[in-house]
Design a protein that fits this description.
Layout lengths: L4 E6 L22 E2 L3 E6 L7 E6 L7 E5 L10 E10 L5 E6 L9 E5 L4 E6 L2 E8 L6 E8 L4 E6 L2 E8 L9 E6 L9 E10 L7
Antiparallel strand pairs: 1-15, 2-5, 3-4, 4-15, 5-14, 6-11, 6-15, 7-8, 7-14, 8-9, 9-10, 11-12, 12-13
């Protein structure tokens, strides 16, 4: 369910094409930060609407573009739904990860697209392992559905359920950011596209 209060909407449709995206934050549908060395350029293709093309020129570090929520919100209760469309130009390593606001110590979920075409996941509780696969040049939606009161989440990809009721084992912190980017082993020049990052929360208490 994608209804509820919208905490982030980043679809890149109104951004200048073929330029590095700004870091104006959630009010502008932009990241709050882009790690130096990460190329994050708005492209008209290959996805169905303008998307963010992620790549790096040198390997050895994980380089994220980090998005946070409107008002700096940290979600601790209720349901939190994260949707993002992805497309890979080749098999390589890229990741989407969910953390607390402002810092990245709390691993609520990390989704890793691997160089062999697999999708694996891990979190504060440890590794889930390979739970699915992706295809080159195919646009698919990744859904991360958090049940904050239970401390669990579900993973969907392309409409298929890859994991349900996974416990992340984090307490005392809430979710406040989504990051996308390369890993320490991503091949320089490999391209990964993301679009329509949307975060909503259902009913529940929250704190600023």
């Amino acid at each position: 369910d994608d209804s509820g209060v919208v905490l982030l909407e980043a679809n890149f449709n109104d951004k200048p094409l073929d330029q590095q995206i700004g870091t104006g934050g959630p009010e502008l549908g932009e990241p709050i930060s882009i790690f130096p060395g990460l190329s994050a350029i708005v492209r008209a293709a290959p996805m169905s609407t303008p998307s963010l093309e992620l790549s790096e020129a040198a390997t050895g570090m994980a380089l994220p573009a980090r998005f946070e929520f409107l008002g700096g919100e940290e979600v601790t209760h209720g349901d939190l739904n994260i949707h993002i469309r992805i497309e890979a130009a080749q098999n390589d390593t890229f990741q989407v990860y969910v953390r607390e606001p402002h810092t990245a110590a709390q691993n609520f979920a990390t989704i890793l697209f691997t160089g062999s075409g697999g999708i694996s996941a891990f979190d504060q509780n440890g590794t889930i392992g390979v739970i699915g696969s992706y295809s080159i040049g195919v646009e698919r939606e990744l859904g991360l559905l958090f049940h904050m009161d239970d401390g669990t989440y579900d993973i969907k990809f392309g409409g298929a359920i890859l994991a349900t009721g996974r416990a992340h084992s984090i307490s005392g912190h809430g979710i406040g950011s989504v990051a996308v980017g390369t890993t320490s082993t991503t091949t320089p020049g490999s391209l990964f596209y993301v679009d329509r990052l949307r975060v909503t929360r259902g009913d529940g208490v929250f704190r600023n």
